[in-house]
Specification:
With about 150 residues, the protein is an alpha/beta fold. It has helices at about 10-25, 50, 60-70, 90-95, 140-154, and strands spanning about 1-5, 30-35, 40-45, 80-85, 100-105, 130-135. Helix 1 packs parallel to helix 5 (about 140-154).
């Protein structure tokens, strides 16, 4: 894994804020931010599966949809997705289809992760698009949010 660059710290801080808000509303606390090739935030979202009654309303999917709407295109060439938790297989597939350049993730997801822990959808050489993965930025904060959320639910 490549060492995560601090230039994504502000975006990760925003993703963590979105994750906290999602957790407070009863969602699994995950937040995601899409950054343009020039470094501007173009979209952001938190998990909303329960609120929207939609199993696909993961933070990553919602942020990618918002970015596509803002840019007027389904391809987000050169963009970076910053997310508090390693994306699942569904989200990794959407990230590939969106042509995201890189994913910066906080915590690894040891059960359903699809960016290098359990699976590695984003860097599969059989795909026509591979995504750079940078991990570990905000990992401790992300893990604490998740652990606290699930401890309260038990």
């Amino acid at each position: 894994m490549k060492v995560v660059e601090e230039r994504y710290r502000t975006a990760m801080d925003r993703a963590l804020t979105l994750a906290r808000a999602a957790g407070e509303s009863g969602e699994v606390p995950v937040g995601a931010v899409v950054i343009s090739p020039g470094g501007q935030v173009i979209a952001e979202a938190g998990n909303a599966r329960e609120v929207e009654h939609d199993p696909t309303a993961h933070a990553e999917i919602r942020a990618l949809r918002a970015a596509g709407a803002r840019l007027g295109h389904s391809h987000l060439d050169g963009c970076t997705l910053v997310v508090t938790l390693e994306p699942c297989t569904m989200c990794a597939g959407a990230i590939q289809l969106a042509r995201i350049r890189r994913v910066v993730l906080g915590a690894w997801e040891p059960r359903t992760g699809a960016c290098g822990s359990v699976r590695d959808v984003l860097r599969d050489s059989r795909s026509n698009h591979q995504v750079e993965v940078l991990a570990g930025l905000g990992a401790q904060e992300s893990e604490e949010l998740l652990q606290g959320f699930f401890a309260r639910r038990r």
